[in-house]
């Protein structure tokens, strides 16, 4: 079952939808079918974003629009797939593996979960909890761009996590999304609901094959109850020819705490939109990120921290290391709504350019509608400090090692707050400084 | 803060002090815009053919454009056919030869505004090229400047007396295709100031122009062109006040600065046009395109602005850093009170090697005011060693105002260093308390703190302006503390 391969992206999806829709999860659930149909109408109206959209000013998706992608109906369990999963697995996690958009229990690894914690496939959950999920979907599907609408129409599976009040999920949940073939489009969708006082750690991990083009279009939605705590790590290691478009949106309840880490290493064009809404009093949001680009990679992060209620605190630090002809885009938006008094927001974006051809476009953005606030942001773009290099070289460290050391030190800040040991080790191994040019 | 708030309200609700209207016999063209109106303007001004052609090209291009809506400002739609595009105070045909010939009504208006046009000008050392509505009525110190080879005159005179200079430089920084409002200006601009500083000349005095908007319903479209030739220096002051008016007035000016090798231009503005009343009724729409071109090496252009007026300010004084080692600066204080909206900032386009730019922006919002900083720092691949430092601070006075920051940073050269910092906070209660506990009234304390907040910008202003700016801010802000 393929989307007509000769057609480029937008008409291809439009024409494929009617045939595909009856076979997508929840097709028998009327409200869900309606959600998908409406999303398809929105996609037909919106199309893919262009550089005329302010949010996509620096990121052209023409390379995606030109191609035709197919949707995988079934999964082939090859040896390479097993090898790939074991390479990316992390010990001590509750692992769910999704291959080409479909949950594969055989590759997953369940850990004992406390009572009141439901962690499973969204497609399966819909059969058992359909009514419960409706409100969640309606809120999640306020698609503002074509990719979000596409995901809402075509999503095939993803994680459904539902934690009752007070449940502390000690074991991190590792959601591993594997794409196996070229020209596939996969649409994972994760819905995570964490009840009052409950806590969870989620690792959303995207990997794919090298050398072939495919499209991953992911939506993750997280709802935090009163006093809930969620640590979400997005680890993007798509193949260097892959296209990756992801949205993470959190809605925070009173006194809740949301921690987001975003690490972007792969993809030829990777875009992550990470947003949180501090919807009740006393929320705390901590966003950090690291993007490392080389070759002709284009890596885009759009974050939005919406202080919609009083006494919220947010901290944000994004760092980028760009080599060769890589290009990074960072847009950090902080909104303080009217009456969100006593908000306290700090934001920082720092970029390191290592080559003549690298480029950074950064836009930290503050929109303040209340007066009793403390907000600050900063952005820097620069190169390695010549004095620091000189210092190291004067102590007998070769230029390559000195550069590697400084790059690594610059990037390592982004690991602060990662508590899970195996994840930390994994991330350390991925940090630049092991970059070939600096080795 | 209860008592402070009351005082603040009093201060905030102060009426516009410069709101008086001088009935003058205006020589206006009919409302609306068409090729005929443009031909009429050009004919009235007895312009050479190249000017008319340029205006018509701009007009034809304007017809293909649509009004931009990306700024965070809101206003009812503007009817461009309901504007009188030209009005000139009637003089004695050939224009006044001396102050004695100037309409006494006009002189009285300037007097009320404190324009040092007579003896005071000598004391102040200011040469004033006063633009009253659209035609230059008096120019002073011309002889002294002329002896140095400096040309400082109204735009119409420049077109008449120095057409070669005008033809060479007009539109070379802001082309007639630039943006909706600049294109409109190119088609219909009535007058403005022209300044040329010959090579190696350091202009011995601050050049100054007071722009006023007077005749009812006359949009004012001035055009300023300043050229500093090799090694020249000039400091130029532009100050504005406007009488109270009920209908919104469109103001779309264009300013072009050209600095050649080693030249320096310092351009300072105090803008205090009518901001509308307490309910947000009326006020000037100030949609201005200002751009400087550091065309050759080692040149410097510095913009300093104090924006306290206008219902809407839409203004991004920019510098194109083309020459190697050239320097661009932008210092700004923008204040919005009542229902004023400001979307202002700068663009620093680094093209040459070792170019440097500094941006210092201070935004103050009170009442329902909305204040946005929107800036672009662009480092092209060619701009090795470019350096930028940006600081944007916002101060909020009152819980219904807004402050936004939209800095765009685009870097394509790894040797560039770009830093941006911004902060937003309200006036510190501890600072207020400190002052008040030492017997300083809430109002004075606020004034003190705000002037401290703006000090870095004010110190960039020439002395005459610094005094006026302090006063303006005091008037606009007194009592905004709450």
From TrEMBL, chain B:
Domain SUF system FeS cluster assembly SufBD core: 211-453
SUPFAM superfamilies listed in its UniProt record: Stabilizer of iron transporter SufD (SSF101960)
Signal peptide annotation: none
Ranges where the SUF system FeS cluster assembly SufBD N-terminal domain occurs: 145-202
Family: Belongs to the iron-sulfur cluster assembly SufBD family.
Listed PANTHER family: FES CLUSTER ASSEMBLY PROTEIN SUF (PTHR30508), UPF0051 PROTEIN ABCI8, CHLOROPLASTIC-RELATED (PTHR30508:SF1)
Listed name of the protein: Fe-S cluster assembly protein SufB
The organism of origin for this protein: Aromatoleum evansii
